[in-house]
Amino acid sequence: MSDPAAINSTVNSPLRQYPLERTRNFGICAHIDAGKTTTTERILFYTGLIHKIGDVDDGNTVTDWMEQEKERGITITSAAVTSFWNQKKDEGLYKNFEGIPHRINIIDTPGHVDFTAEVERSMRVLDGAVAVFCGVAGVQPQSETVWRQATKYKVPRIAFVNKMDRTGANFDNALADMRKKLGAYAFPIFLNIGAEEKFAGVIDVVNQKAIIWGEGDLTNEGLKYEVTEIPAAHKDRAEAALAELIDAVSNKDDLIAELILEEKPISVPVLKAAIRRLTCLIELVPVLCGTAFKKKGVQVLIDAVIDYLPSPLDIPPAQGMVPDTEESVAVPPDDNSKFCSLAFKLWTDPYAGKLVFFRVYSGQLKKGDSIYNPRTRKRERVSRLMVIQGSERKDVDSVYSGDIAALVGLRNITTGDTLCNEDFDIALEPPTFPEPVISMAIEPKTKADQDKMSQGLQRLAEEDPTFKCFTNEETGQLIIAGMGELHLEIIRDRLKREFSVEADAGAPQIAYRETITKSAEGEGKFIRQSGGRGQYGHAVVDVEPNEKGKGVEILNKVVGGTIPKEYIPAVMNGIAEAIKSGVYAGFQVIDIKVTVKDGSFHEVDSNELAFKMAGIFALKDAFAQAGPILLEPIMKVEATTPDEYQGDILGDINRRRGMIQGVDAKNGQTVLTAQVPLAEMFGYATAIRSLSKGRASYSMEPLHFEQVPNSVLTTVMDAAKKRPAARS
Ligand code: GDP
Questions:
Q1: Pocket of ligand 1, candidates 38, 76, 167: which has the most ligand atoms within 8 Å of its Cβ, to mutate?
Q2: Yes or no: is domain 19-308 CATH 1.10.10.60?
Q3: Which residue's C-alpha comes closest to atom 6 of ligand 1?
Q4: Which of 141-155, 299-313, 647-661 has the lowest mean pLDDT?
Q5: Which of 90, 213, 359, 556 has the fewest CB within 10 Å, making it most exposed?
Q6: Is 292 a pocket residue for ligand 1 (Cβ < 6 Å)?
Q7: Mean of the pLDDT values across residues 708-721?
Q8: How many whole angstroms from 35 Cα to the centroid of ligand 1?
């Protein structure tokens, strides 16, 4: 299929089958219901990777059909699916690519856009995106959020106005909406011919041709299309669109501007190359339309992905960090440099088991090679590599820069880990994950589901490093903790969908933290003399505040055997336990350094338990004298609103103890950034919606912990005492 001789770029290995220039890693971003799933499915259908369904000639039974349906679902929701596309050369529309197909990797983007970490990671591994809009609803509030995230993470985009067949579909309105609400420099490269039930095809603006799809059995073969002259009724519109497109491009592209100035003709390849340049620079958004459901416009969309979205070579290189020096390093795509990749998704495939999806940024990896994980400082051998290719799980021997593939059977990797060569020790993502800021108690609706729920939660925690799950020692309740209310809601939803466990949850609780403000010494004794053999443990400790973010350190500096060596671990365990369950108000202690320095023992009565208790008491004693304070999670909140609601939204943030950090105008909208205590953010989704008639949107992420001000301390402490169940 391939012709290695054609792969002559200096960054490509001669062994790879698909040159980097012919690779497209892209995601489909959309408002829920705009048609992300259908569009993905149709792309896989047209690229030949999903087989025809219900084809009687194949002798398919109903069960087969159902199996296939299930299989399709699994494929489409997989973290990344690989497919191949040959641009047709016989239709005179697109240039011939010398017979090497394009490799397209469709990367799943999170359905919920509020998770900064997950959104950021998926946005980082894709090089471009297709933004799907509903032809009837146009730009919906959530499409604005998705769009802004793509802008924030610098993802080049093309837009697909879907559902052109639906009653009320209107391409011009959707386009106007995109320009007005998103501030997009958006121009049609394909215009609609007809709409609603009369939607027949599209006008190829660049080539000034019409593309008409035939009607056919939708469940069977893909629809064929015919390239014709533009029908007379659409001629003026097509010409105006081309003039507008050239004008728009010339405003931003010097080459086209020059050609116009010199009154030279602009050929199709020259114009397409300019559109591609601007799209890759995120200066222009080419707009297409169609109906994924009716299979019209999809082939053209895949061509546009190839024509206009960047290959890994067309975007700035990924940035990594040297763990010790925090120096920034660029990781440009090059098969011949050292291996560096990012594990972006853990996924459990019903057939292949646990998969770690990763994106290679540089170098290559072969089966049998070792990979190094800077977070765990461990090396692991790669025994199996795989790509999900339609309904097939295909084993591959090697992967190259720019590739997306899956590792099979590796256990100690978590989402966000960098996997690299041992002598190329850099981290693509910060190695620590934010501490959970909210928690709730959870229990299955039916007792019989207890084990299933625990297993499900454990697996979800493995996949998502920002989600934690543990048992509250005092109450025996299972506690889930994460980045926000919505995060935990989605965990419950996934438990239901993926593990068939319905769960009840308690009210969400803020995960406060405790720490100290000065150094102190403390002593703990656990001495019992009750006839027979007694108990004797005695420890002395120093505590001091640790640097912010450095966590907890417990050191042993006992000299001269005042506490015998064999009991030191027991003392330390006691301290660790007290730190976990809190001293001041029952919340986990952070950023503290504890040094065990002295104690005493009894020849007969000393034992592990007594020393563990002595450790707990000593820590509590020292803590009480060290100026303990309560810390609350502060969220970074970013709200985007049409200007007219700005005043109300600012006022509301002030009332929530928020500190405004910035008010910026962006694309006709106001972007407010603020730091707000999480405790004040309950119900914010509803509040902002009602303040802005649904037009404003927001995102928030944990920023850091800050001391709870005295004005609210008593309320927080009282509430904490009343609700011990969900402390973390
Ligand atoms: P997602 O939530 O974005 O993944 O959206 P889906 O692909 O699941 O589509 C949502 C609904 O819209 C489904 O009922 C689809 O059948 C329907 N749908 C998707 N594309 C089209 C289209 O082009 N035309 C029409 N009429 N319906 C569509």
A1: 38
A2: no
A3: 35
A4: 141-155
A5: 90
A6: yes
A7: 86
A8: 4
* Protein residue with least CA distance to atom 22, ligand 1: 163
Q: Which residue has the higher pLDDT, 623 or 46?
A: 623
CA 196 / ligand 1 centre spacing (Å): 14
Architecture of domain 633-707: 2-Layer Sandwich (3.30)
283 vs 351, higher pLDDT: 283
Any ligand 1 atom below 6 A from CB of 166: yes
- The span from the CA of 655 to the CA of 505, in Å, is 29
Confidence of residue 270 (pLDDT cuts 50, 70, 90): very high
**Does 30 sit in the ligand 1 pocket, CB within 6 Å?**
yes
Verify whether ligand 1 is closer than 6 Å to residue 165 (CB atom). Answer: yes
Among protein residues, the one whose CA lies closest to atom 2 of ligand 1: 33
Contact assessment for residue 696 and residue 644, using Cβ atoms and an 8 Å cutoff? no
Into which CATH architecture does domain 441-506 fall?
Answer: 2-Layer Sandwich (3.30)
User: Mind listing the pLDDT tens digit for each residue in 510-559?
Assistant: 889 999 999 999 999 999 887 777 899 999 999 999 988 788 999 999 99
Give the chain's mean pLDDT: 85
* Local confidence band at 87 (pLDDT 50, 70, 90 cut-offs): low
Question: Residue 580's Cα: distance from chain center in Å?
Answer: 29
Distances (CA, A) of 250 to 97, 166, 381, 439, 653: 27, 35, 52, 54, 43
Quote the radius of gyration of the chain (alpha carbons, Å).
30
CB of 162 sitting under 6 A from ligand 1: yes
Question: 400 CB contacts (<8 Å, ≥6 apart)?
Answer: 12, 13, 16, 20, 335, 360, 364
Q: Which residues, including other chains, have CB under 8 Å from residue 78's CB and lie 6 or more apart?
A: 108, 347, 349, 388
Where are the chain's structural domains? 19-308, 318-428, 441-506, 518-626, 633-707
pTM: 0.74
From 293, 294, 295, 298, mutation site for ligand 1 pocket: most ligand atoms within 8 A of C-beta = 293
d(CA 28, CA 5): 33
Number of the ligand 1 atom closest to the C-alpha atom of 294: 23
Q: What is the pLDDT of residues 608-638, one digit of tens each?
A: 999 999 999 999 999 999 999 999 999 988 8
Q: Is residue 362 in contact with ligand 1, taking CB distance under 6 Å?
A: no
Same fold flag, 441-506 and 633-707: yes
Atom 19 of ligand 1, nearest CA residue: 35
The fold of the 318-428 domain, in CATH, is Elongation Factor Tu (Ef-tu); domain 3 (2.40.30)
Residue nearest to atom 17 of ligand 1 (CA): 35
Q: What pLDDT, on a 0 to 100 scale, did the predictor assign at position 240?
A: 97
Residue 51 has pLDDT above 50, yes or no: no
User: Which residue has better confidence, 278 or 697?
Assistant: 278
Sign of CA dihedral 37, 38, 39, 42: positive
Amino acid identity of residue 523, one-letter, is E
State the distance from the centre of ligand 1 to the C-alpha of 203, rounded, in angstroms. Answer: 23
pLDDT digits over 470-481, tens only? Answer: 887 767 889 999
* Model pLDDT, residue 88: 55
| Helix (H) / strand (E) containing 278 | helix 268-280
More confident residue, 727 or 356: 356
The correct CATH number of 518-626 out of 3.40.1190.20, 3.30.230.10, 2.40.50.140, 3.40.630.10 is 3.30.230.10
Shortest CA distance to 614 belongs to which of 602, 632, 628?
602
Distance 105 CA to ligand 1 centre (A): 21
Question: Residue 260 CB: number of other CB atoms within 10 A?
Answer: 14
Q: Show Cβ contacts of residue 281 under 8 Å, excluding neighbours closer than 6 positions.
A: 156
- What separation in Å is there between the alpha carbon of 38 and the centre of ligand 1? 6
Task: Kindly give the distance from the C-alpha atom of residue 169 to the centroid of ligand 1, in angstroms, as a whole number.
Answer: 13
Per-residue pLDDT band for 101 (boundaries 50, 70, 90) equals confident
Q: How far is the CA of 200 from the centre of ligand 1 (A)?
A: 18
Q: With a 6 A CB cut-off, is 34 part of the ligand 1 pocket? A: yes
